[in-house]
Amino acid sequence: MTRPIARFITALAALAAGATPLTAAAQQIALTFDDLPSHSALPKGETRVGVAARVIAALDEADAPPSYGFINGGSVVADPESGRVLELWRAAGHPLGNHTWTHMRLDDGDRGPFKAEIALNEPLLAAVMGEADWRWFRYPYLYEGATAEARADVRGFLSGRGYRVASVTLSFDDYAWNEPYARCADKGDAEAIERLEASFLASARASLIQARARSKAALGRDIPYVLLMHIGAFDARILPRLLDQYRRDGATFLTLEQAQADPFYAGDTQTPLATDQLGLPSFAGEPQGSVIPADLDRMCRPG
Ligand SMILES: [Zn+2]
């Protein structure tokens, strides 16, 4: 390379570096999936393994980085075949974390069973994850307890066992489309499925716009968002289009560890229900700007 060209390249690089604060405004999203190995209803003919394989293929196609799947070990006992989902997830290079044994909702009064369910999930996580880090916890229903005492108690239990809490700062109730989809698929109602797809993608876009607006209002910037998804049949079907939409809207994907390395997550960010109930300041969590069709629960029902 001749000197003038080298200088030109250096100048270009400096320009690019100077431009970084502007381009860094582009939003980053960590993809996370709850309820492995099985979530919600399956259309006839579909399997848990098939759903997981399609989610993994979509992540691969989008060049998504390793993405956490949060597991309920009890589902594997109930349906041993679904255990293959966890193996596929790992084989594709994605990590697993803890979501309690049976997706238990925390009881504010007696918190012992909740802690026991966290511990019960651990041998399976350790077996599937080996040396990799599985000490990330996602609260079922994002419910952390109604009182500061309950919250602090379980938080203390988790940190004592080496866990970090996986936040949710981007969500649009993705799970709500899975049951209607199973009904509409069984019915062979292609027009209804098209409506489900369109409303899902619109909801995802609206929630991102709203999360960004709240982030900018609260902090003056975009935080890296942690997106809550579920391992459902409709999630699997729509995921390639969802990831493509995020990309076209300017998002890039990063890992949960990378996202939660942002100083925002060093604070106690809360999950949404706790935030609402304790009146703590946070913009995180609750489905934002979601445009769930009003007739979602009625779609494709017989009669
Ligand atoms: Zn869940």
Comma- or semicolon-separated keywords:
303 residues, alpha/beta, two-stranded parallel sheet, 12 helices, globular, binds zinc ion
Give a description of the structure.
The protein is of the alpha/beta class. The protein is 50% helix and 9% strand. The chain has 12 helices and 7 strands. The chain has helices at residues 3-23, 48-61, 73-78, 83-91, 112-129, 148-160, 178-187, 190-219, 233-248, 256-260, 263-266, 272-278, and strands spanning 28-36, 69-71, 96-98, 136-137, 164-165, 225-230, 252-254. Strands 1, 2, 3, 6 and 7 form a 5-stranded parallel beta sheet that branches. It has a two-stranded parallel ribbon with strand order 4-5. Helix 7 packs antiparallel against helix 8 (190-219) and helix 8 crosses helix 9 (233-248). The longest helix has 30 residues, at 190-219. It is globular and about 50 Å long. The protein starts with a helix and ends in a 25-residue tail after the last helix. The site of zinc ion (ZN) has 5 residues, from strand 1.
